[in-house]
Amino acid sequence: MLFRLLAFAAIVALSAGTASAAPKVAASIAPVHSIVARVMAGAGAPTLLVPQDASPHDFALKPSTARAIAEANVVFWIGEALEPFLERPLDNLGQDADAVALMEAPGVLTLPTRDIDLEDDHAAHGQERDHDADQEHDKDHADHDKDHDAHDKDHGRGHEHGHAHDHGAIDPHIWLDPRNARAIAQTAAETLAAADPANAPLYRANAVAFDREMDGLEARLKTKLAGAAATPIVIFHDAYQYFEHRFGLNVVAVATINPETPLSARRLSDIRKRMADAGVKCIFVEPQFSAAALRNLAPGPDVPIATLDPLGAVIPTGPGHYPRLLEDIVEAASRCANG
Prior knowledge:
By secondary structure, the protein is an alpha/beta fold. Helix content is 48%, strand content 10%. The longest helix is centred in the middle third of the chain and has 26 residues, at 200-225.
């Protein structure tokens, strides 16, 4: 009798554990992985698909990556504009997975890939910031975000957007606006709640906590960046438009939209002129790409070359990765401003 009771108790415990087990989740890049990991905290952890030292723009699918996609119940990615390598695997390997393209998520503000002639772009971008200032106390920017969301939903996952490096495409670096991170967390929570109802209250509570954390982080970053926002800088890869839109950076020249394409002599000459005219104080390169040509732009030791990383290649993965990523960007800009 005792044996049967113990056996029954073991079956019940096993069944309960199985019912509350988190789904297998994969996330494409480290910042998305971090946000999803925060939402999953206490239930499980996602698998990171793109190694931190690699670029999602040209990442080559590995057998381990293919296995992770094939085994996943849910895959979070930005979209084909950022991770073109994932489009076919998600169709072929992840047919049973819920593939969530976060560029199309409700509440995510999207911006078009801009012309890197920043003199005209800054004028247009300044108008966007004026509109944003008018809405500063409206946390969700509901009407604005709905318009973008409706536009994106019309395209759907199957629409061919083209790569983000093409003019007219949507800039895919959406995570560098913390308000987009909030929307990503909310989408992750609702997606995971549908896949794992037993843990739904936990996912939703974690998303609410993340939202509060972003409130505090955004306020701290704006305060710290206030003295550095006007400092003229040059960046290698145009990955920071969303960060500029939210916080403000004085980017006077961008070397390239497509980091895989060598810089022409004409482009280098144009950047040198912009640097001289603006009195540039820093040149920022990225660890994922070779930017040797950009390093040759520095006219002397008075214009240092530093690293600005939109993916956080050296930051430990996990829930703390994303806030640290934004803090590191602000810290690099502040060091530049303070010499």
